[in-house]
C-alpha cells in the first residue's frame, strides 16, 4: 500500500514538473516575444530538441555588463554561480569579483574552459563586444565543436546576448539550444536541465550584481 502511495505521489510530482516547473525554469524571466525571438547563433544548432531562453534586466549599460561575460571560464573569471557546487565535481572554479584586464581578450576560435584542467569547454563561435557571445560545446581532441553524429551524439549551443533598453539599462538573454541524435543520450541528460537552471539563474544574478556595482573611482592625486 505504501509503495502504491509513493508511486502515485511520484507520478503527481512528475506531472507537475512537466506542466508547471519545467516550462517556468526553461523561460525564467523571459517574455513570450523574447522566447520566440531569433538570436545570433541559433542557426549553429538547427532543429534543436530543446531551446531554453532565460532573461534578466540589469541596471547598467551593456558596456558595463560585457566585461563580466567576456571573462567567463574556469581558468578565468569563473561562472559567477555556486562555486562550491561546481567544485564538488572537481572543476576548481573561483568566481571573480573584479574585472581583470588579462581576461578581457577573447576571440572566435578560442576555448572557454569548463574546468581548470581544461578537459572540456566550449569554442567561441561568435563574438561582438557589448552585444553577443556564442559558445558551442567542444570536441577538444578534434579541435572543433562537437557534432550530434559523434561520441555521445549531442550538440550544445550557449549564447549570451545583450540588448540595451535605455542608456542605463540592459536586457541579458542566456539561451541554450540542444540537439540529440540518440534517444539514450537524451534520456540520460534529461535531469541535467534542472541543474542547468539552478546554476544559470545564479550566474545571471551574479552578473547582474557585479555589473550594477558603482564603478571604482581612480585614486585621488
Automatic annotation (TrEMBL):
SUPFAM superfamilies: Bet v1-like (SSF55961). This is Polyketide cyclase / dehydrase and lipid transport. InterPro entries: START-like_dom_sf. It comes from the Bacteria.
Amino acid at each position: 500500500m505504501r509503495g502504491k502511495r509513493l508511486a502515485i505521489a511520484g507520478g503527481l510530482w512528475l506531472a507537475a514538473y512537466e506542466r508547471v516547473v519545467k516550462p517556468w525554469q526553461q523561460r525564467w524571466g523571459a517574455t513570450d516575444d523574447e522566447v520566440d525571438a531569433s538570436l545570433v547563433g541559433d542557426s549553429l544548432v538547427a532543429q534543436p530538441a530543446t531551446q531554453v531562453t532565460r532573461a534578466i534586466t540589469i541596471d547598467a549599460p551593456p558596456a558595463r555588463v560585457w566585461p563580466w561575460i567576456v571573462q567567463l571560464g574556469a581558468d578565468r573569471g569563473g561562472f559567477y554561480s555556486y562555486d562550491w557546487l561546481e567544485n564538488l565535481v572537481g572543476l576548481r572554479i573561483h568566481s571573480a569579483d573584479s574585472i581583470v584586464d588579462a581576461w578581457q581578450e577573447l576571440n572566435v576560435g578560442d576555448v572557454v574552459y569548463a574546468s581548470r584542467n581544461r578537459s572540456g569547454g566550449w569554442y567561441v563561435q561568435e563574438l561582438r563586444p557589448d552585444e553577443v557571445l556564442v559558445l558551442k560545446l567542444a570536441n577538444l581532441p578534434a579541435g572543433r565543436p562537437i557534432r550530434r553524429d559523434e561520441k555521445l551524439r549531442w550538440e550544445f549551443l550557449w549564447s549570451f546576448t545583450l540588448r540595451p533598453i535605455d542608456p542605463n539599462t540592459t536586457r541579458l538573454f542566456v539561451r541554450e539550444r540542444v540537439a540529440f541524435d540518440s534517444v539514450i543520450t537524451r534520456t540520460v541528460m534529461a535531469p541535467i536541465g534542472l541543474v542547468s537552471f539552478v546554476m544559470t539563474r545564479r550566474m545571471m544574478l551574479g552578473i547582474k550584481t557585479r555589473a550594477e556595482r558603482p564603478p571604482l573611482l581612480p585614486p585621488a592625486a
